[in-house]
Design brief:
alpha+beta; 30% helix; 4 helices; nine-stranded antiparallel beta sheet; 29% strand
Length: 179
């Protein structure tokens, strides 16, 4: 019989895809007030690997990644995804989103994204939320999977998550000192 134990807390991360009309400083402020102190903001990246959001949000979309300093328990991702959806709804114009806010979490071993879309590789977590194992961390590198979104396969994005992993490890050390 295995011994059940709680896993270490994880780092909350957000992907924010937005159109040219979006003031990312306002979105950053909303993330900060809703989810906690932001300890990382990526440079602006072009969102070019998919036209999935183009019809709703327009063309020439951009993306930024953010992370939150306070670590979370993994099961919190369900409610955090629901809150992220509420944030998207706040910025709708004529029933169309101007931003797409996807939370996920970074653990030692992987990156999990929360989604509202189920598929064979996405286990259901509850309340309409599914988990997607997006990247795995082995041999000091992030590795993609067959279903990993094309942009998450890019070295530029993997490098962001390698940097975030270092911040996460530092956050874990800080948490231990606070105990």
């Amino acid at each position: 019989m295995s011994t059940l134990k709680e896993p270490k807390p994880v780092k909350l991360v957000f992907s924010v895809i937005y159109n040219k009309a979006t003031d990312t400083d306002i979105i950053k402020g909303r993330l900060n007030s809703m989810f906690g102190e932001i300890d990382f903001e990526s440079d602006q990246l072009n969102f070019e690997h998919s036209d999935y959001y183009t019809k709703e949000m327009g063309g020439n979309l951009k993306r930024k990644f953010f992370s939150i300093k306070k670590l979370i328990n993994r099961e919190e991702i369900v409610n955090l995804k629901r809150l992220a959806n509420e944030l998207e709804n706040e910025y709708m114009v004529e029933s169309r989103r101007c931003i797409n806010v996807d939370p996920g979490y970074l653990a030692h071993e992987h990156l999990i994204l929360a989604t509202g879309k189920g598929f064979a590789h996405r286990p259901y977590l509850g309340k309409g939320v599914y988990a997607e194992l997006t990247l795995i961390y082995t041999q000091n590198e992030y590795h993609s999977l067959d279903w990993t979104y094309p942009d998450y396969k890019e070295n530029e994005v993997k490098d962001i998550f390698k940097h975030l992993r270092k911040i996460y490890i530092s956050n874990l050390c800080e948490d231990k000192q606070d105990d």
